[in-house]
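In the current project phase, the collection of sequences with tokenised folds has grown. A representative record is quoted in full directly below:
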Amino acid sequence: MRAKLRAATAAAATAAASAVLLAGAAAAAPVTTAVSPTTATAAYSCGTWGSTTLTLTAAQNGTTATITLGAPDMIASVAIPANTMDVTLRLEKNGGPDTTVFRGGSNPSIPAGSPVRFGALTGTVAPGDSLDSYVGGDSLSFTFSVFSVRCTAIAKQSPGPFVFD
């Protein structure tokens, strides 16, 4: 009888420990949410650096969002060393006038004559936020070395604003 009681107690303890471990794993799992659409394009004017069509790719993890920018037709006139750019992207929030700011400081090494590439930019979002290109002000700025580039969005995003869960 004692052997059965010990076996039952051991089984109950093992089940309880397993439940605690599973609950802890679920709590530690990263919170991922959806943003739609995940990719959009928009035209930007960058002064002497010319105009470009940026590809914006969005991702979301809880209240943190990342925007990755692609500018294949924006060519670096000088070499830009890795991790030397300070980048700020401002997107119009929920139809304006408020904006949400995304920042980043990492970039790959960019040889002179090559397309400018940006690292991921991070910002904070709330459920239901709708973010679109900020037309009419400094929408994108980046600095490196002694250079400072300011760009203005000249069109809203296509296919439309990013909507975050």
